[in-house]
Amino acid sequence: MESGFSLFDHEIGARFGKRFANAAAVVHQSSLPHTTQELVSLRASQINGCGHCVDMHTKEAAAAGESAVRLHLVAAWRESTVFTDAERAALALTEEGTRLADGAPGVSEATWAAVREHHDDDQTAALVCLIGLINAANRMAVITHQKGGSYEAGMFAAALG
After folding, report:
1. Structural domains of the chain, ranges and CATH numbers in brackets
2. CB–CB of 119/90 below 8 Å?
3. How far is the CA of 81 from the CAs of 48, 78, 141, in angstroms?
4. How do residues 1-60 score in pLDDT, each as one tens digit?
5. Mean predicted lDDT score pLDDT of the chain
6. Neighbour-count burial for 14-53, b at 16+ CB within 10 Å, e otherwise
7. How far is CA 139 from CA 9, 47, 72, 112, 142, in A?
């Protein structure tokens, strides 16, 4: 199926896109490790079935030096040994914050305890904002039928230029 609508090729979408990118820049410039940001974005995108965002975040993470093994295991992070405790806490928060519409009870106290053990206040705020942003990005891309496969690392940053 082809794209239903090229959102950012129109005035309202373009204006929104710039503001959305500025919000994302706040998270990107935070003390939350870039690797964690990409893992979180990738995991939410996998859950939401957003091929465009899976493509983007896999390629951006790889370009930043992330290993293929870790990227391949993000979907099965609980059953792997390649993620730190801090990354595991962030991935748990991502899953629980992303699956709200699935009738999930929200974020558990155990997950919050793990997040707070491994992330300071600024990093926790960045995580919450990132999870909200990537879920919004996933929804916009899925609604407009954006497909994965053609993204090249650096394209998003270049578009903001």
Report:
1. 9-160 (1.20.1290.10)
2. yes
3. 24, 8, 31
4. 465 788 888 899 989 989 999 999 999 999 999 999 999 999 999 999 999 999 999 999
5. 93
6. eeebeebbeebeebeebebbebbbbbbbbbbbbbbebbbb
7. 17, 11, 23, 25, 5
